[in-house]
Amino acid sequence: MTGFRGRLTRDDAVVLRVQKLGESDRIVTMLTRRHGRIRAVAKGVRRTSSRFGARLEPFGHIDVQWIEGRSLHVVSQVEGVDLYGKRFLEDYPRYTAASAIAETAERLTPMEHEPSLRLFLLTVGALRTLAAREHTVSLVLDAYLLRAAAIAGWAPALRECAVCGTKGAHRAFSVPAGGCVCADCRPPGAARPAPATLALMSALASGDWATADASEPGPRNEASGLVAAHLQWHLERGLRSLPLVDRSVARTAAPDLDRTLDPTGKDRA
Amino acid sequence: MYEGAIQDLIDELGRLPGVGPKSAQRIAFHVLSADAVDVKRLASALQRVKDLVKFCTSCYNVAESEQCRICRDPRRTNEVLCVVEEPKDVVAIERTGEFRGRYHVLGGAINPLEGVGPDNLKVRELMTRLSSGEVKELILATDPNTEGEATATYLALLVKPMGLHVTRLASGLPVGGDLEYADEITLGRAFEGRRAV
Ligand SMILES: [Zn+2]
Ligand SMILES: [Zn+2]
Question: Which parts of this protein are zinc fingers (C4-type) (chain B) (predicted)?
Answer without folding.
Answer: 56-71
